[in-house]
């Protein structure tokens, strides 16, 4: 450590002295992500303040946004503060610092007792080395006939928290090993039944639990071109933009048709879309101050050792050196897409450039903005539609998630999550299930597919859920907003009425947080709308945006389950809180090994007022996953989405006058 | 009537004698829709059999499909029967005939007592003429200051059935009038409060109900180019296929990548997709024998006169001369789409050619078939995706529905419904709502927006629902299928287990129809799979296709509501019946004025066996619609969908070896 960084230091110097003279990218917007020179400055500032030693890991370094009021009053070209929020780890001690970057000052440096920083790559490797050196592990492998450890890879990560004596005494990482010989897809090669618990503080093996016997099969489930081939292209389907894209981007600021917004790629949560506005002539109307993924929860549904504690909080438990992965042009995004790069801090404190961590592209393929055929018109009237898609991909170990923010010409903003990648699987002895329909439900003995489904000989895909929390700081026509809950309730009509029933809309304004903890219910449906508290449309209704749910799921875990408690945000599809700059992560800032309800359940216990004030909505999107053979060896992308939909925000359909070509 | 049709007769003769010699299109597949010469033959056959007189209307003429076994054993070039199912109306009497087209024989001719044929255009006009001539109507209009009737248009259609004395004595059509002066969008120009009940048998006015006073506003809500303009095209986004489309179509048979299917456009339900197979080398595997829309139910939620009886069964109550409307190239379908024409019988008994009633196009814009980024690979692996879209648009009065059947490379078949067009609105005195949040919920007096929402000055969009029933005759690897219901049920773990709960999958086979009447429930979710009763995949599981629901809704109407009873299919999201050639329409063959539970509720009362036999699944897709200003004057398209998803049908992800370009 304490390495000098002369070039970066020089550049930082130049940037500080002549902000616009330096040729390298400098932040031009208060919400721009931290850039290389700034990361170096953070490093140097903390080092010079004596806060680093040779055991310090940089767990997380993100932009600490300026106060919202400052951002809202900022004008292009104006000055703005630059602060970094830094999580440092020394062993199992966690420190949180705030650094004023241009002034190179440590504004605060706090020890965070009881909080665990996310697990980083370096740690994963360190745990792996400890595991491979452990005599019990070696014996366990030898019992399976594995003596050449060169292709054996071990590692360890967060194993939840279950309130056991062991968990109270130690911060426990769960380790496992896999055999990578002869395959690139080593997810199917886990050593069955071998779990190693490692003390995070000492990186020493606490306990080896060996409940298995066999070794993984040798079948290869690769999906490289080498393995699966690639068919010749069929009749080409070419999308071209001879005049270039229809959007403009300057730094993080994007302008497309009536939409304007700012985008940065945050190390922890990826895409952060800010200051989303609808521009009509000179008038800029605020829709969403900020929206981003806040947390991911993926609990597996297998009670066996080595599996019951796979209850991942995937955004907060791992320091992944940036959630957003480099995108592959032409595959992850279409050939005509534009890309955004970003810089992230590595665990060692040196920044890293990540290329193409987001893409932007226009999409038009047979979408119809609106249409109508009327008998007194020779042909139907209508307009084809075009969207603007902003995408990132997060690879979280085996899973890959695509996150699309789709800006639509009709004023809607659709958020979609596509799940692909590799299933988390376990090797089993069974190579085929002798299925007997009758006996199946009554079977008492645990079967290899009791907690999942055989995907291939010797490979079981384990049942699991996915839950995503999106933080949606809607500012509909300004920051003073409320939540309107429009319930559709059955009304019985008088007996003498020919009709017996209908539904009407009962509008309620949620006064406090508890009144805004809402679940989807087909028997008592409701519209959830963030309404302006001070702006009305021409007809007298408050302007608003609806949070329009798509297909969704409820957690089936029990309320006293530690996992359900730790990921407490999954208890409701919607939460609303008053705006707080420090409330960004739905399961808390430090979900790793957390022992209770941080984040939304904790914040909302105060039942704060949320009426006619600056509020933040949190939407939980979930789905259950019962694996099927088609999900192997790599899953077809499965999409789920929701929409922010204007509701009396515009005086009429804003897509009326679109061009007649997309 | 009794007009001669010499040219068509000659062509039909040629076709019968030399089936392949005639240049005009002849049916080449047993499931092809009826074609012009065949309609003429139907007409002539019925006329020559003395079944027509000057009062006969052709309400519906559709292909009567050959028995399924004949279709399944048919080979290209082989002979097949051609029969037409004909519904004739004489006054309020309904007749159903079956005609053997090539042999020109009336195979059956039945009177259908108690059944009402759908209302046709001619009738609508006839009712309109009667209304406009009625002195009470003229007086009502005069009271409103309307004396020039030239731009007043009246008409009448089905008004549900409510078991009133009037309904028991008469078949009642509900008529209304609108003022078309100065607008093409006359849906906002209904004469407020004026309802005219007309006896269908005599086309005489039964009763004029006038509860209104004003006249509609003069505001124009047109969305013609003239009215709303069309912006100049922005940077072009060009989709081109220099080598033409990647699919082939011969008559109704389409082949695209691994998919093969047959399509026809049926007059009553539009797109009928049949014999959907996945082809792998020489092997053709059956997925879906046939899928199509079966019924639409749109109940409005307004108890006032003229509104409570707007409870439309839109597929069965109207003889629309073909549900599928002509598509506008470049707007309804992208510029590179291919189109399908069709012929339908008009009410007069003469066929009509309808151009471009369906389109087919390939779509690729940034969809990702699958991807994964692995640390031991320089770049992520993945494939871009391409879809094949088959689309029709049905304009049902004010509403326009897009129906997409999307064939995917991953083996899924997605069915999507897009709702656009014009809201059903009522003129009201209010031009603005003086909204008082506090008073709103407690208001006692009925308000103009009690049953909907003000969309524009003087225009209220009335709350309503949309429900669609899709008939899905899945034949997964043959006709012997069962329904597997895989329930995800919470399991509590023993107290000593660190984890408290998880869910497991409990599989159940539905033995009879009642066991397959299923609703979505987030607290007790389940997978619905049509499984093969005799084919297992390589791992031992039955091959299957899942009916994977998207966002959906439940009816909020009471069970004793006539409308709920008449559209009984909406009571469940899923129904399964044993295959029956005569069970095609979820609310029965004759929903017009139907007085009870026809269709699914009636058929399934017998609780027939559905295990290991040829079964048909019926999926109900619904959504509630609370109108908003943005839905006016024409609605942005709102999409809802579901998916037929392979589940252990393939041994692995079938999209692995796709080309590296879409």
Question: How would you sum up this structure, described in words?
Answer:
2 copies of one chain form a homodimer. In chain A, strand 26 and strand 27 form a beta hairpin. The first copy, chain A, has a 10-stranded antiparallel sheet. In chain A, strands 11, 12, 13, 14, 15, 16, 28, 33 and 34 form a 9-stranded antiparallel sheet that branches. Chain A has 10 helices and 35 strands. The N terminus of chain A is likely disordered. In chain A, helix 1 packs across helix 2. Helix content of chain A is 11%, strand content 40%. With 662 residues, the first copy, chain A, is mainly beta. At the A-B interface, strand 10, strand 19, strand 20, strand 21 and strand 22 of A face strand 10, strand 19, strand 20, strand 21 and strand 22 of B. Strand 10 of chain A pairs antiparallel with strand 10 of chain B.
**In percent terms, what proportion of residues of chain A is strand?**
35-45%
Largest sheet descriptor of chain A = 10 strands, antiparallel
Determine the N-to-C terminus distance of chain A: 55 Å
Strand order of the largest sheet of chain A: 18-19-22-23-24-35-32-31-29-30
Radius of gyration of chain A: 26 Å
- Please state the average pLDDT score of chain A: 92
The residue ranges of chain A in which pLDDT falls below 50 over 5 or more consecutive positions are: 1-23, 437-445
Q: In which range does the helix fraction of chain A lie? A: 10-25%
Instruction: Name the overall outline of chain A.
Output: globular
